[in-house]
Amino acid sequence: MAKQTDFPVIFELSQEGRKGYQLPDLDVPDVDLDAEFASDYIRTEQADLPEVSELQIMRHYTALSTRNHGVDSGFYPLGSCTMKYNPKVNEDVARYPGFSMVHPYQQVSSIQGALGLMYDLQESLCEITGMDAVTLQSAAGAQGEWTGLMMIRALHEANGDHHRTKVIVPDSAHGTNPASATVAGFEAVTVKSNNEGLVDLDDLRRVVDENTAALMLTNPNTLGLFEEHILEMASIIHEAGGRLYYDGANLNAIMGYTRPGDMGFDVVHLNLHKTFTGPHGGGGPGSGPVGVTEELAKFLPKPLISKNQDGFYFDSDRPSSIGRIKPYYGNFGINVRAYTYIRSMGPDGLKQVSENAVVNANYMMRRLQEEFHLPFTQHCKHEFVLSGKNQKKMGVRTLDIAKRLLDFGYHPPTIYFPINVEEALMVEPTETESKETLDEFIDAMIQISEEAKDDPEIVQEAPHSTVVGRMDETQAARKPVLRYYREES
């Protein structure tokens, strides 16, 4: 792959007097800034902005966009994150004026269509997850985790169980799980995995006691394995007086086949920007709805979107609610995209999504286990975890493999996670990738493995074809350069 040609940054193209914009005529009364604002808020010098033509700025940002990698530009097998293709019909619907131009301060009577869509989305997510009520407020999965835990905390406090301060988290869990538990005021307690990569039931019984508030679990778990003893685990937690929290990051593997509510979970968060094809990454926006059983419904954040004989409305009369957790009512544009996806797929389509995701992951896993160590050999669900420990013996680390994949035009899988697998490579192909794409990625991985044996330096020094080569990652993390500084002439 040829290296892209460098181009000057936009400040270096600046020439005095050039313009790439034309402001419309002022159509509101002019404002006396000195009368309206304190002097500290009034700029006295022109902003140091580049002066460029429209053509120059278009070429600049178009060139920058070609340096980004996304699901529209190439294979993105980022394990745990479910980087699915975003159907463009979702974008079309989200741009309907009735959705894109709606304002949160409008009268409820004028936004009945938007409220109706969100009400129907709540009902659909209840059906998909087996929950009794859903809030759409949460802006992302991590906020959904915190929201769910705060409701569990509210339930225990309402029952007088103030001593329930421990949240159990598997050693293979997403890092947000123990973090959310801590932020919610709990103590995170680790439960170990067994030799099959599943929760060790004996260790679970050991750590569960009268102080247990909840167990946080992803099923399938972060290793891509289904917790086959989930009903027994639910019984252990419930008999101890705790509640089960479902991390919905891996729901893409089970839609239409089983539901968290049927497994015994009391709280569920979903990632609409993962399973339900909202755009993912770049800082957001995300959406992390939270579903609960009837027992916990009264603690849901307010307002909820409800329906009566007059139509849809914001229900704020909820005295036991944990309160509002986000301004307005969630990220509406992402909700519209998720609703469009669910309605266009239907129940049979969502079931087919899970089936194809599982088939793709198992196909890749079986082909790659000949070259890479496979720590858990049973069939996986939507993702699987390889180990690069064999390549490490030859001086090639998992990080080197990830960097080398960039030369083939692929985004690397998740690496060094979960932490209970040495030199982990976590791969999730999703359901939308063709067999040809999977085979091309597999061939690239096999080639890199062969290079580790025959010419390890080419892997150790990768990437070779990207705009930016191998960086000092320690310095990049500790001393990042986050803005451009123009050199004075």
In short:
The chain is of the alpha/beta class and 489 residues long.
Question: What are the main properties of this structure?
Answer:
489 residues, alpha/beta, Aspartate Aminotransferase, domain 2, seven-stranded mixed beta sheet, three-stranded antiparallel beta sheet, 10% strand
Write the layout of secondary structure elements.
Blueprint lengths: L32 H4 L17 H12 L22 H7 L2 H4 L11 H18 L3 E3 L5 H18 L7 E5 L5 H8 L3 E5 L9 H7 L4 E6 L12 H10 L3 E5 L12 H4 L3 E3 L20 E3 L11 E5 L2 E5 L16 H37 L15 E4 L1 H4 L5 H9 L7 E2 L8 E4 L7 H20 L1 H5 L12 H6 L11
Parallel strand pairs: 2-3, 2-4, 4-5, 5-6
Antiparallel strand pairs: 1-7, 6-7, 8-9, 10-12, 11-12
Helix pairs in contact: 3-11, 5-11, 6-7, 11-14
* Fold-level CATH name of the domain at 89-344: Aspartate Aminotransferase, domain 2
Distance between the termini: 36 Å
Residue stretches low in confidence (pLDDT < 50, at least 5 long) are 1-5
Radius of gyration: 25 Å
Q: At the fourth CATH level, what is the homologous superfamily of the domain at 89-344?
A: Type I PLP-dependent aspartate aminotransferase-like (Major domain)
H-E order: HHHHHEHEHEHEHEHEEEEHEHHEEHHH
DSSP E strands, number: 12
CATH class category label of the domain at 89-344: Alpha Beta
CATH structural architecture of the domain at 89-344: 3-Layer(aba) Sandwich
Share of β-strand residues: 5-15%
